Amino acid sequence: xxxxxxxxxxxxxxxxxxxRVLAGDGYQVTIVGRRADVLARTAEEIGATPQVAxxxxxxxxxxxxxxxxGELDVLVNNAGGFELDHEDGLTGTADWWRRVYDSxxxxxxxxxxxxxxxxxxxxxxxxxxxxxxxxxxxxxxYSAAKAALHAWADDxxxxxxxxxxxxxxxxxGYVAETEFFGDRMTADGHAARVxxxxxxxxxxPADIAAAVRYLxxxxxxxxxxxxxxxxxxxxxGR
Length: 238
Known about the structure:
The chain is built from eight helices and seven strands; from the N terminus they run βαβαβαβαβααβααβ. By secondary structure, it is α/β, with parallel strands linked by helices. A seven-stranded parallel sheet has the order 3-2-1-4-5-6-7, with helices on both faces. β4 (74-77), α4 (89-119) and β5 (125-129) form a beta-alpha-beta unit. α4 (89-119) runs parallel beside α6. The radius of gyration is 17 Å and the shape is globular.
C-alpha cells in the first residue's frame, strides 16, 4: 500500500509545500481544499489526489474520510485563515469570531476525528498548523483560534499516545509567498514583520514544510504534545 498522507488546505502556500515534500518522500498524498482549480494544479504537479471539500461541513468530511481505507500515516491540518471583514456590533462580532474559529479549529477537529482510528498506530502522525499569533496575540479571533489548537493537541496527544501515534503543532511566524494576507500586505508591513525577526528575512513555505517533514517522519517518534515554533526568532519557545 505504501505510506499515505492527507494534507488539508493543500492547494497553495504552506499546504502545497508540505504536500510537495511528503510526495517527494514517497507518500501517497491526498490534498483537500475548497477550490477545485488550485487543487487540480497542485495535484497534477506533485502527483497527489485532490479532494474538494468544505471541512466545516460534516458531510464533506465524511466523504473525504471514506476515501481513506486502512491505516493513514500522516494527517496535516493546515486549512484555515484570517478574515478581517465583519459587521459592527455584537451580531457582527459573533459572526466574525465563529467564522474564524470554524475555519481554523472546527476544520481540524472534524477531519482528525473522522480519521483518528486510522492514525492510531506507531507510525501515525497528526500535525496541526498554528501561528505565532497564538503565542503573542495581536489578531483577535485568529490568535484565539490558533491557541485553541495548542490546548487540543495536548488532549489528542494523550489520547493517541498509547497506540504509539504522535500529535504535534507547528507554529509559523511571518511567511511570505502565500495567500494569507491577500492584497493587504504593504511594503512597510512586510519590512516591519521582517524587522521583528532575528534572522532578517521572511519565512518561506519551504521552511514550514521542512519542520512538518521532521514531525511526520520516523525520527520524530519520541516527540509528541510539542509546539515547534518556526518564526525566525519573533517569539522564543520555552
